[in-house]
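Hey Z.,

So I finally got round to the pteroic acid thing we talked about over coffee. Here's the setup:
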Amino acid sequence: MFVVDCAGKLLDLSRPRVMGILNITPDSFSDGGDFLSVDSAIEQAHRMVEEGAAIIDVGGESTRPGAPPVSEAEELDRVIPVIEGIASDLPVPISIDTSKPNVMRAAVAAGAGLINDVMALQAVGAIEAAADLNVPACLMHMQGEPRTMQQSPCYADVVSEVKAFLAQRVDCCISAGIPRSHLLVDPGFGFGKTLGHNLALLRDLQQITELGLPVLVGLSRKSMIGVLLDESVGNRMYGGLAAAVLAAERGARIIRTHDVKPTVDALAVSTAVINNKMG
Ligand code: PT1
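And the result:
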């Protein structure tokens, strides 16, 4: 459970680690895939590793609430040049944030070593792709789909339902030939959940760790922090750090974040307290 082999690069989860977010989504100046945007993405990846990221998560399709789907061709155009540009130079593994089997295949061929799928490999062909590729996969819980998931999230007991869903996806993956040692789980903060649902999942995160697999959480800049603070996306870092520390204390092993250095420092202090053998 402590070391995950990501296509030859090892991810040591004996303490909580930081996953740095590398979103390759076009801004007003570029459509992604061109020289300037690829170059700045590569620069950003190197900066995050210097700041202590243990894995870099490359994504070409936004899954935030309301986001529209992106075509396979577009997603490939965005992520593959960046993965090719960083895979051989970076000492840390790269994960590919996608639900599309062909993007998983191309990304792993380009050097990615972990699949991060917000659809928990439920898309047609995804589970087979992950099994063929023989790399670890993170299975995330989502209710609904990004475009509409925040319209009316509904659970009788969010924590036990999320846990049961993840347990069922783990069983499916194992039946499809993915070894248990290749699986991680994620409760999917903000994916078809109200603030109350998100807070319950964070408070009771230990129940998710009872699945016996490494738990990944993504809380960075999300609206659950924004609503609590009444702050815009650019002003949610301190709130996100509090959530990251609480997640780590409850057993989370990977914190997915935009704010690498602040999160690495917060986890270093949390881990020293949790593992204290000095006094
Ligand atoms: C996540 C995650 C992810 N989040 C994993 N992958 C996003 N494994 C993308 C909001 O409420 O948590 N785990 N990939 C980003 N998605 C969101 C969702 C962004 C909700 C923002 C919100 O603001």
